Amino acid sequence: MLIEQDKVVLIHYTLTDEAGKVLDSSSGGDPLAYLHGQGNIISGLESALNGKQAGDKLSVRVEPADGYGVRDDALVQQVPRRQFGGADLQPGMQFHAQTSKGHARVVTVTRISGDMVTVDGNHPLAGEVLNFDVEVAEVRDATQEELEHGHVHGPGGHHHG
Predict the structure, then answer these.
(1) Residue 158: is its pLDDT beyond 70?
(2) pTM of this prediction exceeds 0.85
């Protein structure tokens, strides 16, 4: 069965940066399961998997625009420490914030200087070239429920609790 729109795909993968450092991997665990064509994974990897089948192995280089986006310096802001409600802040901590347009965004604390905190709303991998080594473990038809929900249920997928 070929990978195409609305198929459930299970992949084993290792993600490395340009220096070869492993950023993420399914090695030693369950494969990642996703619903193809639903934007569940980054577009550069999804398009490279189109038409593949179980057993296929591939290496995929994903440029920032097809990964987690290009870095946007406008998403780096300084905010008063009091907006964090007295939390014991440390660089690297992440918070959910609302944008001025009401969208939810994860921000990462990058610097603390006196009463001002620098936060970065870019994805931590924004601007990075991503290198995936992928093995397709399984391709199957999606269930009606998975199609209605837009994601995979069960092993490697989403669990409703």
Answers:
(1) no
(2) no
